[in-house]
Specification:
Layout: E1 4-8, H1 13-26, E2 30-37, H2 39-45, H3 60-81, E3 86-92, H4 95-105, E4 110-114, H5 128-136, E5 140-144
Helix pairs in contact: 4-5
Length: 145
């Protein structure tokens, strides 16, 4: 019976390292790559003087979906390089909560993720999302540094 592996990605180098690890170690298993579109991402990207912060009605979902499509295309390319195939999923919500709920509700056996998201220069060993997923996940979590 094949194990079900969930790999959350946000496009950061560490999240892609988590995907690389999953593919090289569990490439024959059932691997699903998840990207969580978070409204917080849009708020973080905005902020230049005079730049309007997008809202739901101002196309944030469209911008977030375009970014998700790019990230998942990179994930599929990585899988092809490992002669593996992956399923992909996109969800909207708070990243840690969405990852934990998705893993539980969809019956995954293992979550593999990078230690940090977009801000890789942190001196801390774990980013807040990775730490919270590790603490709250109902299944095994492997963190890739």
């Amino acid at each position: 019976m094949s194990r079900r592996i969930l790999v959350p990605v946000d496009g950061s180098p560490k999240s892609m390292a988590g995907l690389e690890y999953a593919l090289s170690t569990y490439g024959d298993e059932d691997v699903t790559v998840l990207h969580v579109m978070s409204p917080h991402d849009v708020w973080d990207e905005a902020g230049e003087e005079g730049e309007e912060t997008p809202t739901e009605s101002d196309e944030w979902r469209e911008r977030a979906r375009e970014r998700a499509d790019e990230i998942l295309a990179d994930a599929r390319e990585a899988a092809e390089a490992h002669d593996a195939s992956v399923s992909t999923a996109v969800e909207v919500g708070e990243p840690w909560r969405t990852i934990v709920e998705f893993a539980d509700e969809e019956g995954f056996d293992h979550v593999i993720m990078g230690s940090h998201g977009r801000h890789d220069d942190s001196p801390l060993p774990l980013g807040s999302v990775a730490e919270t997923v590790m603490r709250r996940s109902p299944v095994l979590v492997s963190i890739v540094r």
